[in-house]
Amino acid sequence: MNLHESEKAAGILRTLGYEECESEEDADLILFNTCCIRDNAERRAKGNIGAAKVFKRANPNLIIAVMGCMTQQDSAGETMAKKFPHVDIILGTNNLDKLAECVEKVRSARKRSVLIDPCATPEIHEDTPVFRTSGTNAWLNIMYGCNNFCTYCIVPYVRGRERSRTLVNVMDEFKRLIDEGYKEVTLLGQNVNSYGKDLGMKNGFARLLEEIAKINGDFRVRFMTSHPKDFNEEIADVIASSKNICNNIHLPVQSGSDKILQLMNRHYTRDYYLSLIEMIRSKMPDCGITSDIMVGFPYEDDKDFEYTLDLVNKVRYSGAFTFVYSPRKGTPAASMPQIPAEVSKRRIVELVDTQNRIVKEISKQFEGKVLRVLCEDLAPKGAGKVCGRSECGRMVTFGGDVHSIGNFYDVKIVKSQSASLFGEVVK
To answer: Would the pLDDT of 120 be above 80?
Structure first.
């Protein structure tokens, strides 16, 4: 989501005559797009924003701007303006459309702008220019905001309530992206399964996927993120029956303990989640299922953590984002009793070791199989090598060059190494 908003910001800046440059020293404008979902992301952002004052000293005409979730937090924009006087523009999550106006004010009159609107149900802007930078993949927002209010999460407070784009607008943009030659489109939303509820649509996400499935062409569709409480059999049926919608589902579980899930306000139980996994795999046996898993949430004891490990071993995720709970000011969980850091550290190490073992075992099972892979880029290591993902989301390295990028290949897997697969193109 943040990456795509950076593409929108770049699109706006290009309409003002700006182009991307290689280094901060050469820049006429530096824009920080921030995230506050975890404390580490916020601290890194503040560190980089503070460090930018050296570039301002060297070039007094340099414009420094900050946008995104971090500034949208309660009173954060005003606090930042005082702490970082070298920053010219501070925008919240609802003010991206004001970026051009703010830049012009600074350029013409050196007038500082701090615009942070309340985050309830901000307007959807359909005409924001986009400068896409993700190669063969295009990001496509289908909705914004979140209504779930998980007790650990700051997103509803900084992104506002759920707002869906109309089916017509989403489909128009989707068709345009396919006409422009993009081979993969990723549908974005904090909870894509809620798409259309605010518009009065019944089972809106399944309906959207059905419309996308009707489009002819050689392309792929992915989506993120799904909330387990809203994922259903209708969605799974559409995915299973479509040749273009990837059998690859990100379904964050967060914890394997019913006690912790209830404290998190997740609205599902361990057994319900496992029944979803069983349903998905009954329809798509080769589906790549990934997850987000948290340790160290308030009140998590050793038994709760064992439930999480047990669930991970039962589901056998093809990949997982694992992290230690990070208190976010203003969320209910931040006022709960916190787990000692050394306990969380021990648990995250054990969780990562468990997940890595599973991924390695799954990777081994791909050896000798032929996977259809979309070539996305040159491989970071090894001349004459390229890399791309299979339908189920596994990264595959194989022989090729810059001309291979953007094409599909049938690749026989000859070797696996942890989460990586290596293969040869089938002639």
So the answer is: no
